[in-house]
Amino acid sequence: MESASLEALVALHFADSAKLKLNAVKLLSSPIARGIELMADSLRAGGKILACGNGGSAADAQHFAAELVNRFERERPPLAGLALTTDSSTLTSIGNDYSYEQVFEKQLRALGRKGDVLLAISTSGNSANVIAAMRAARELGVSVVALSGNGGGKMVEHLGPGDVHVCVPHTRTMRIQEVHLLALHCLCDGIDSQLFGDKK
Predict the structure, then answer these.
(1) Which neighbouring-strand residues pair with 52?
(2) Domain segments of the chain: what residues?
(3) Backbone dihedral region of 198: left (phi > 0), alpha (psi from -120 to 50 degrees) or beta?
(4) Share of the chain residues as helix, strand and coil, in percent rounded to the nearest 5
(5) Euclidean distance between the first and final Cα of the chain, in Å?
(6) pTM, rounded to two decimals
(7) Is the CATH number 3.40.50.10490 carried by domain 3-196?
(8) Edge-to-edge strand order for the sheet containing 81-83?
(9) Using one digit for the tens of pLDDT, what is the confidence trace for 57-78?
């Protein structure tokens, strides 16, 4: 492929991503705002945010937890965030002894407490291990902020009345992931604003 054709391909990706984000603002701003409030209330009360997902969504879960524990854009105290995707010994032992579907659920049952929030990320909305964690969350009194796309998939069936669903209106995984990252940054900034006031 010639350089000019590659540049056109790149430009197409930029344009498609920007168009989706601008078109999704009205649809997603309200659920993201509710997610901010849910997470900030949990953290304010001494709760924590537990995040899970597979593949690129696992990276997003870890990214989000790092922004909470370390910092986002301002100096402030560490916040309680934990990615359920990082402990290889735990993940492989559960996957080996039980099933991969339980890798997040069993961790949530061990670490989650009433008042915590589960950040459940699945671009398809059909990740069995993420859905299993959502089912456990309802039993434990853990609220859910779900990030999905492609209509929400099977995750929709497992959302409770107080849960939040941020469903990107697109079918391509890369576009959904790009909006998920923006949503996560909105959550981080909003949580800081709720807990520590407007930026100075």
Answers:
(1) 120
(2) 3-196
(3) beta
(4) 60, 10, 25
(5) 49
(6) 0.96
(7) yes
(8) 81-83, 49-52, 117-121, 143-149, 164-168
(9) 999 999 999 999 999 999 999 9
